[in-house]
């Protein structure tokens, strides 16, 4: 028993010394399990995960070998030195094995992790490529309407640009034509101004034409509602007003056109304000001279149907307004001279009033015609009514005479004629019918 105690102590020491080894192995196993879990989670490589149980089996096998070794050491009756030496050798071998297993495990884990990482990257790239292709396809579908719209917009822009170039060319031609037309109008206007300034007869013709245009624009007709260039003889010679406007009551309005252009045109062309005022004063005096000359013709004495004034037509609002700016009493002065100043604006009002009066006169004339026709129609209807009543009386008398004849025919003729059939005289079965009595009398209404 005493000899067995050292062996038990050795065995107990061996067990105590092996506990750290077992704890280290367990720690390695725990670390191995954690690494295995991380590899399985990160790499998702199931094939490599299956190798870990094999490693566990190897560790378990070495553990069993360690147990057998300890058992052999317990059963071995060698000396303490040999057992210690063998134990140390086993410990060193276990350490070497542990180091080898650790290195192998680290290498295997690194390879597994690297492979799993490569597979993960490859799968990720494949998924990214697939997603990219799908995204490109979806984006292509989404952008297709935009592409179509852009193509249509581009076509519209090209068409608009072509149209713009065409229209620009046409516009350029029109502008050129307009410029030429303006130049022509300017030249003609200059010619007209020169003609009006230098030729008094041309000014008179122009004023007469403006007067005729105003009257015709108001609905008056020449030779019907108004006449031009009517001449009369007087003590002062032959007078010829520019127009005579007829009024429905038999009266007339005498209109004479007067154009004062030279001084006004000089004022319009003047740059210096003082000169401009001088020209405008001369223009006002020219208008005043026309008023005096027209008043001296006494048209109201030559035309008995005319009122005791004459209308002086000035073919332009600006002509009269410029004169009134210089002489505010010009209107009253003309009225005192029995001259009414008229521009196209107020002459239009006068002419339209005359046209309206003529229309009212036509309406009144037609109303009188309608009244005369109604009176004549009523008289004729009265005559027809008398004839109709006479005819009704004749019809009534005819009916009465007819009924008397029928009564006499039935009472005197038919009675005797029917006796022939009673005597069996051949009558060919012809029966004499009684004639009808007329009870309808003509409708006669009393004349109220």
Automatic annotation (TrEMBL):
Assigned keywords, A-Z: Coiled coil, DNA recombination, Membrane, Transmembrane, Transmembrane helix
Single biological process term from Gene Ontology: DNA recombination
Keyword Transmembrane helix part of the UniProt annotation: yes
Coiled-coil zones: 45-111
Highest taxon of the lineage: Bacteria
Stored PANTHER family: DNA RECOMBINATION PROTEIN RMUC
Role summary: Involved in DNA recombination.
Protein name, UniProt field: DNA recombination protein RmuC homolog
Originating organism: Zymomonas mobilis subsp. mobilis (strain ATCC 10988 / DSM 424 / LMG 404 / NCIMB 8938 / NRRL B-806 / ZM1)
């Amino acid at each position: 028993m005493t000899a067995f105690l050292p062996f038990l102590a050795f065995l107990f020491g061996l067990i105590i010394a092996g506990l750290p080894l077992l704890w280290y192995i367990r720690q390695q196993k725990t670390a191995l399990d954690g690494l295995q879990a991380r590899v399985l989670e990160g790499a998702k490589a199931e094939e490599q995960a299956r190798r870990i149980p094999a490693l566990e089996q190897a560790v378990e096998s070495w553990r069993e070998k360690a147990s057998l070794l300890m058992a052999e050491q317990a059963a071995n009756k060698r000396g303490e030195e040999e057992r210690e030496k063998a134990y140390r050798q086993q410990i060193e071998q276990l350490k070497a094995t542990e180091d080898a297993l650790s290195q192998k495990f680290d290498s295997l884990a690194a390879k597994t992790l690297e492979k799993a990482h490569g597979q993960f990257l490859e799968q990720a790239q494949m998924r990214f490529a697939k997603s990219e292709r799908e995204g490109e396809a979806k984006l292509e579908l989404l952008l297709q309407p935009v592409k179509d719209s852009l193509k249509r917009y581009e076509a519209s822009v090209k068409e608009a640009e072509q149209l713009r170039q065409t229209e620009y060319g046409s516009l350029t031609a029109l502008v050129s034509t307009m410029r030429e037309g303006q130049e022509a109008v300017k030249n003609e206007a200059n010619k007209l101004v020169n003609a009006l300034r230098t030729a008094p007869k041309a000014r008179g013709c122009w004023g007469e034409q403006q007067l005729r245009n105003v009257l015709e624009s108001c609905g008056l007709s020449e030779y019907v509602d108004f006449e031009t260039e009517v001449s009369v003889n007087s003590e002062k010679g032959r007078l010829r007003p520019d127009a005579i406007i007829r009024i429905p009551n038999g009266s007339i309005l005498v209109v004479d056109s007067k154009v004062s252009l030279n001084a006004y045109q000089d004022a319009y062309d003047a740059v210096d304000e003082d000169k401009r005022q001088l020209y405008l004063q001369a223009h006002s005096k020219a208008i005043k001279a026309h008023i005096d000359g027209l008043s001296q013709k006494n048209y109201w004495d030559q035309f008995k149907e005319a009122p005791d004034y004459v209308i002086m037509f000035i073919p332009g609002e600006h002509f009269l307004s410029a004169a009134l700016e210089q002489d505010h009493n010009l209107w009253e002065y003309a009225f005192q001279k029995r001259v009414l100043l008229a521009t196209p604006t107020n002459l239009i009002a006068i002419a339209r009033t005359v046209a309206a009066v003529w229309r009212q006169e036509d309406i009144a004339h037609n109303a009188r015609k309608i009244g005369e026709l109604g009176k004549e129609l009523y008289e004729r209807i009265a005559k027809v009514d008398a004839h109709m009543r006479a005819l009704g009386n004749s019809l009534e008398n005819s009916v009465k005479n007819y009924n008397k004849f029928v009564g006499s025919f039935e009472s005197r003729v038919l009675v005797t004629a029917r006796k022939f059939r009673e005597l069996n005289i051949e009558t060919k079965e012809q029966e004499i019918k009684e004639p009808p009595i007329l009870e309808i009398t003509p409708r006669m209404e009393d004349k109220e």
